[in-house]
Amino acid sequence: ALPHGNYNRPVYQGSYDITYAASGFDPVTISGVQISNYQTKRINIGLGEDVSDVLAEVSIAVQEEKGTVLPFTGTEFFNDGANVYLKAEADEGWVFEKWDIDGELFYEDELVYTLNGDADIVAHFSEEEQIPVINVDPVALLFGEGVIGSVHSQNITIYNTGNDVLEVISLAMEGDDVFFVDEDAPVLKGFFIAPGEWEQVAVFFQPEEEVQYVATLTIESNDPDHSEIAVPVSGEGVLEAAIIKLTPDTMEFGDVQIGEVNEKTLVVENEGNLPLTISEIQSAHDAFEVPGADLPMTLDPGEYHELPVRFSPDSDGSFSEEVVFHSNAGNAPEAVLKVLGYGVDPTYVHEPADTGIHISVYPNPVDAGSQVLITLNEPVADANLVMFDIHGNLVARLHQGRLAAGDHRFDLSRHYRRMNSGMYLVTLSTSRGISSQRIIKP
Predict the structure, then answer these.
(1) SS3 assignment, position 413
(2) Residue 421: which pLDDT band, with cuts at 50, 70 and 90?
(3) 50-74: b or e for each residue (b if 16 or more CB lie within 10 Å)?
(4) Closest by alpha carbon to 357, among 432, 425, 256, 409?
(5) pLDDT mean over 30-37
(6) What ranges make up the beta strands (E) of 197-248?
(7) Residues 323, 326, 331, 337: what is their CA dihedral angle, to the nearest 10 degrees?
(8) Which of 199, 133, 205 is nearest to 171 (CA)?
(9) 173 falls in which pLDDT band (50, 70, 90)?
(10) What global pTM score does this model have?
């Protein structure tokens, strides 16, 4: 027999029926407990005194008939004081709302309920609200120094993290006219972004004098909560400067087995009129490296250099980091390359087939601009994206309902101020599996 109390024991991933028993108490069996690799499962159990001669009538129903519930629908009898494991799964286009147990309401889709007499249990589902949600990255365009008469550019990415089509109605620049968006760009004529998709817009800076410039880029959309997003834009005109440009500014390496290498090419260019000297390249994690860079590296005005960037994970799970290029660049002395990847352990014999569900958070440790990136190989109808603190308390529900295949980004800014310093767990659970990412708020 296994010991009682706190202990560790390896188990296979899967569904379990767990029985709790103690001398003089009524044993309790909870059916259908889902155990996932690298996840902690907490179940609160209360063992009542042996009252096996007292039965409780339990009735479970689905109010709107737009979902399924476990362990049954209908009426069955249990020992009074027993624990009943309840789980609700919404149909596509619907979301779980609440359990109503004799007038007491519970909002968790998975629930262990201790019987105290007969119980009428009703699961409620509601139609999923279809709304677009706009997010932008970066939240401010800081050009730094720009050479007078030259044209410099930065990209702003517009994401739709909602579940309905996002219409970007207009982009308007107000302020100093040295900032502009290409008038011939198709995106300026109004465009649509499907759920989970994104669109990039190039913003240009052409300084005319040795002064500071400021403007505001206003993005109007059909997001019901944020119909206008104001993006601050700034820059300074100078006669001479080294200007660094990284292309691309974000690299996604996808799935890579532990010990294997995926390599991509980065172009580093000097768009200024003074020599650019890169003195140091720092990676926030050893899994990402830029080999072959002979430092210090000097690029003459107009010169560019191609550098390999490699991702070689040393553990499984998601990686979301930064590679920082330190230089004498007037626009970005610490230019940042965002790098993302997912490590896969091929030696883990009990690892199930890839669920096609990956989660990462960038940047991490988090700040007010951090985003959760979800990658799905296939669409899911029952995605539940939540954040817990280190004690297992629910901090935020970021999404519940359908997600299309592809990449989805969810903004943490609305919850950042409510988070205390410490460790948190962001978890995406669906009928196809569970994926989590630990995050830290400094």
Answers:
(1) helix
(2) confident
(3) eeeeeebebebeeeeebbebeeeee
(4) 432
(5) 74
(6) 198-205, 212-221, 228-238, 244-247
(7) -10
(8) 199
(9) very high
(10) 0.54
